[in-house]
Every structure is written in C-alpha cells, then in structure tokens.
Amino acid sequence: MTEARWTAARELAAALVGDSAGDWDVAGKLPADVLLRMGAEGVLCPQVPQEYGGLGMDSLNCGELTAEVGSRCSSLRSVMTSQGIAAWCVARLGDDAQRAEWLPRLTSGALACVAFSEPDAGSDLSAMTTRIRPDGDDVVIEGEKVWTTAAAYADLILVFGRYADGAAAVVVPSHTPGVRIERRPDPLGCRAAGHADIRLDSVRLPRGSVLGGAGQPLGMLVTSALTYGRLSVAWGCVGILRACLAAACRHAATRRQFGKPLAGHQLVARHLADLMVDEQVATLICRQASGHWDERTPDLVTSAVLAKHVAARRAADGAARATQVLASAGARDGSVVARAYRDAKLMEIIEGSNEICELILAEQAVTAWA
After folding, report:
1. What whole-number distance in Å separates Cα of residue 176 and Cα of residue 87?
2. How many angstroms separate the CA atoms of 138 and 141, rounded?
3. Nearest Cα to 242, choosing from 310, 315, 312?
4. What global pTM score does this model have?
5. C-alpha distance from residue 103 to each of 40, 88, 100, 243 (Å)
6. Of 42, 47, 134, 230, which residue has the fewest beta carbons closer than 10 angstroms?
7. CA distance between the termini of the chain
8. The pLDDT of residue 4
9. What is the CA angle 29-31-32, rounded to 5?
10. Residue 205 and residue 170 in contact, taking contact as beta carbons nearer than 8 Å
11. Rounded CA gap, 360 and 306, in Å?
C-alpha cells in the first residue's frame, strides 16, 4: 500500500466526519451516505487485499487509520471494527469462492456486523446456544444474538454458532426470511453505532453460506475473530485518548482562572501530563501488537489482549481526566470529552471485559514466569 492511499483514506475520514460526530451521537444514528462512502472506498476494512478491492494495509497502518477515525467518532470506528472482523473472518475461514464472493462486497459499500453475544452467553461464549444445522443442501439457523454492533445498518450478518460437534460462522443476508433486527435504544456509549438484537427463526441458507472453517472448536474460532476485534478496539482507544488530549490541552491553554491559564496551575498540569502518558503508553503497546500481527508471531493473541486491556483502561482514565479539566465546558451532550467519557467506559466491557482480559493475562503470566 502506498503512502498516498493511506493519506487519502485518512483525509476521507476527516472530511466525512468533520465536526458532525457530536450531532450523530445525540441523534443516535450515522448517516447512510457516510457509511456507504466509507465502505465503498474500502476504509471500513482496510486490511482486505487489493485484489478484492481493499486497501491492502498492514496492521500498523490500519491501526493508525482506526485511531484517526476513533479520535473523531467512536461510533463510526465501532462500525469499522465490525466490518474489519467480518472481512478478516471471511479471508481467514472462507474458501476461495467465498472470499471472491463476499470480500468485494465488503469493499464496495455493503455493511457487515458480527453476532457473538447471546442473552446467556456474554463473556462466557462457551454458553452459546445458537445452532447452525445442516439440512440437505442447506443449513438452518436458530438462535438469538444481543448487543450486536452495527446490526441496525448491516447488509450481512456473520453469525457464530454451534455446528455439529464444533462451531461455525455463517454469512446471513439481513433480509433473509426469519431474520429480525431490533435496535437497542439509548446505549451508554457509541450511541450511533447501530447496536441491535437479532432473532434467527428457522433461517434457511445454502450450505455455501457457512465459512470453510465449519466444525472447528468454538474457542479457536472465536479467538481468531476476537483477536482482530481487540486490536481494532485498542487502536480506537488510542484515538479517544488523542481527542481528549487535544481538547484538554486547548482548553487549559486558553481558559484563564485566578489570573493565569489553567495549564499554569500545577494540579491541572498533572492531568495533562497523565493524559500524555496515557496516550503514549496506549500507542506504544498497540504498535507492539500490530507488529506481532504483521510478523505473525505466536505472541499475537496475548499481545492483542494486552493492548486492548491497557488501551481501554487508559482511555477510560484519560477521558475522566479530560472531563475534569474542561469541567462544565465538557459536561454536555455533543462535547468531545463527554462523548469520550461514555464511549471509553464501553471499551472496558466489549471484546473481553477488563476482568476477562486480566484472567487471560494472569494465565499467560503463570505459564511464562512460574
């Protein structure tokens, strides 16, 4: 991928978002034309190879682009993460025919979501009950998915479920009979990301809709998808921190209290310093994880968990600091830091909560160091 392509993608995101993210957040909806343009330019899944109409970015460049989008609108970045997971799963799990069918659609305007969570299977995805059942030349899908990011916008739904003695992922067009999508009203964060619940009632599709990895262990299948998602969320948190750092520093440099700028007061300056540390730490750990992705090292899965955990916690802490610095100037709907405060909290929950990440990291620590 050329530098010019990366710059063009970054400039497109900046132009399409502009200063509209606050309005989108309040309205709870992203404009259809913005999503279509971002999708058609391949920006929503930048790592898809150029032969399928993608930008062919490596993980590091994709991460920096994700941070750029995340600094402007976490809801749009959330859609980007969903599209990227779907494309990654098709590329990794699908056969040649499936890649040729679906990847060009994902880089030409079609939107996708990924359905993991269920009413009784959130962090514990081993409790998943959705079934993908072979029936002649077809498969029949039964189940319920909840809190599916971008489902309200999706043309295609990548559904994970039980298949025979293992698990599978199946590509479900959202208009298929038996598919019902109900938007989740008023989420805490990423309000415009199109969160919705999905009901799958006897949904019948050709067997070719099941990606080539059918029958794999559920844990292995989900881990592959979550690794991409965790790294994408981590880079999105870098974007949140950069937005908070910029907003807090601008405000502290221009707002005067007690005869001098806020930045001249030591207790305020401490918040700015800590924000800078948060952004630098999150950036460095995301770069490390992207490096492991691009080098295909065995440390990738752990690195992605570590990056997501550290970046999400730093983003939540940093957004709280930025809100403290801006005070009433930031405590309103539509404000960059108020939006970041809510969005960052959600990042500590999705793609593996803080606690789940800590359990994974503790297990890895014992394996490596005991």
Report:
1. 20
2. 10
3. 315
4. 0.96
5. 12, 9, 6, 32
6. 134
7. 42
8. 80
9. 115
10. yes
11. 9
Distance between CA atoms of 55 and 12, rounded to whole angstroms? 13
Map tokens 């913005």 to a residue: 34
> Which pair of structure tokens corresponds to residue 242?
């950069």
Mean pLDDT (the chain) is 95
In whole angstroms, what is the distance from residue 353 CA to residue 357 CA?
6
Structure tokens at 14: 């900046």
User: What's the pLDDT tens digit per position in 19-72?
Assistant: 999 999 999 999 999 999 999 999 999 999 999 999 999 999 999 999 999 999
Cα 67 to Cα 57: distance, rounded to the nearest angstrom:
14
Amino acid 90: pLDDT: 96
Helix H, strand E, coil C: the string for the chain is CCHHHHHHHHHHHHHHHCCCHHHHHHHCCCCHHHHHHHHHCCCCCCCCCHHHCCCCCCHHHHHHHHHHHHHHCHHHHHHHHHHHHHHHHHHHHCCHHHHHHHHHHHCCCCCEEEECCECCECCCHHHCCCEEEEECCEEEEEEEEEEECCCCCCCEEEEEEEECCEEEEEEEECCCCCEEEEECCCCCCCCCCCCEEEEEEEEEEEHHHECCCCCECHHHHHHHHHHHHHHHHHHHHHHHHHHHHHHHHHHHHHCEECCEEHHHCHHHHHHHHHHHHHHHHHHHHHHHHHHHHHHCCCCHHHHHHHHHHHHHHHHHHHHHHHHHHHHHHCCCCCCHHHHHHHHHHHHCCCCCCHHHHHHHHHHHHHHHHC
Question: Residue written as tokens 């844990």?
Answer: 219
Report yes or no: 268 and 251 within 8 Å, Cβ to Cβ: no
pLDDT tops 60 at residue 1: no
Angle between helices 336-347 and 218-254 (to 10 degrees): 160
Span 65-124, pLDDT tens digits: 999 999 999 999 999 999 999 999 999 999 999 999 999 999 999 999 999 999 998 888
